[in-house]
Amino acid sequence: MTYYVTTILVYFGVDALAIWGLNVQYGLCGLYNFAFILFQSLGAYTAAVLTLGPASGNGGYQHYVLGASLPFPLPLIAAGLAGAGLGIVLGLLTRRVGADLMAVLTFVVSVMAVLVVSAVIPLFNGPAGLSSVPAPLQSTFHISYSSYPWFFVGVVAVVCAIALISVRALTNSPLGRAMRAIRENEKACSALGKNVAGLKLFAFAYGGALIGVSGALLVMFIGAWSPGSWEVIETLSAFAAIIIGGTGNNYGVVAGVFVTQIFLTELTRFLPQFSATNLIGSMQWIVIGVLTLAFMWFRPRGIFPERKRVIELDRLDPSESRSHDLGSSTAGRSQEAQKSQ
Amino acid sequence: MVGGSGTVLVAAIGFGVVSAAVIALAAIGFTLQVGISNIWNFAYGDIMIACSYAGYAANHAGASIPLCVVVGAVVGSILSIATNRLIFMRFLARGVSSFGMLIVSLWCGVVLQNILLAVFGDHFFTYKLNVSRPNAALKDLGFLLNSTQLSIIGLAVVLIFLLYLFLEYTQLGQAMRATSSNSSLARVSGINTARVIDITWGISGALCGVAGVVFAITVGAFESTSGEGFLVIVFAAAMIGGLGKPLGAALGGLVLGVAMEVLAVYIQSDLKEIAALGILVALLIFRPQGLFRGVSSAKGAAPA
């Protein structure tokens, strides 16, 4: 029971973290990143090779690059940096590409990456994937196997709290406002003098870092990662979570994650095993698919729509600003003079 | 394996032409849909595999292979018109963005794929075929192709030629090209664009169905997820030929099919798909506008 509860909590936290990352890219800045799962996998592989130690150790049954065994927070940070790096690379690749082609391009890159990792075994051990990734801090603090899952839940909670604070700050900052402007009307935003290309790259990198860290936490918890675990469907269900929860709303998307990744998955687990197991697996995807389409039809803004940010008009009224600012008072007066004529 | 690398190369070109036939048929259907409705139909690969299953059912019910191809074409046609009419056109009419349409079509594909998985189960399926020996006359030239493979090539050539004649010389074909290049203009010229769109999806669905059946025959064994990997190859062929251009897609399919098989002679064979996707990525990055002239005017093809 403990194992079940902690596993669900860790998955929920990790998925929430990843979805905040994707929400910065898609919900906030309107970037169509269909390579979501590639970011998560890169984070997972980075963290794995940085904790597994040299590849020649452990009998050398796994082949991978860059074997190291760094102390705990470092692999996590490295995974974040790797995700950010991938974000910048993809951002530069899609720089001149139109909106929906960006989705196709990232989709193809994601499919291609699975093929490359499977074909080039020295990279990350090919189709078999990496396994026996050590659990962080278990040996340093001598935590028993029974209480370790709860410890890890704590680690995930801390990382999620930091991520939420930073994502909230970004959403409410002028930077976040500029990103929303890009999402709504890129040309107008560019005409207002915003550095659209730079902001997009920043959103790609920022979101990528969060998704990368989520992959690292996941691999540290389950201890293994292989190309089979990062299919396109994972990217699609992340988008489903955002659409169902509420695009652009940091709390809404967590609700979306809860519905798609936790509630529906666990619900099917408790269904009576009336038939072959693959039927239940398929039912789950069919339900998520139909639910996503239903939301796009009936409630395209999601369960919790993004808050409308309104700047009240009287705060922009020149008569008010006159009392504060001498410079603008003359401008206001000359406008009034023009009106009266 | 007696001869040198020259023999291997010739044989590879032969196999390449067979897979090119399959890719070309699928890519033409795909590119027609992009041209007429401006939709990247990500459910295309899954509809194709649904037709493979339809052909499989017909095949195991005792139908001959040509009949299976017809069954696949009919099922593909019905499925394509249905998804376009009942789902895609309605979402488009609601003003869903083109990115939203990608999500819609992807989920349609996933739902279809999982229905197939639930109905047929998660193992591989094979058609019952009378496998004949390689054609003797061609064997002397170095091609190792049996009569089934030769018929697939023949079928593709005939279908592409018929499609060409249809698009170039019939009134309906002209109406299709007109709707594809500018649907509003086509509508004010008195073309019933809604009907033309239906017919286009019907034709493209039929091609998709034929491709599904011949795909299943050429690869030998297929499963519900086989469409996923094939879809990106179809994208690549359509992009090489210029999106929205049926004959370009046929050419793209030929180039890609032969190039992949020939590459497989020289490099690790699982790298051939990576090479094909590399071409696609390069095209998307470096020639996105250049290849999209055929489509840009097809925006808003769906009647409001």
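Residues 320-341 of chain A have pLDDT under 50 and may be disordered.
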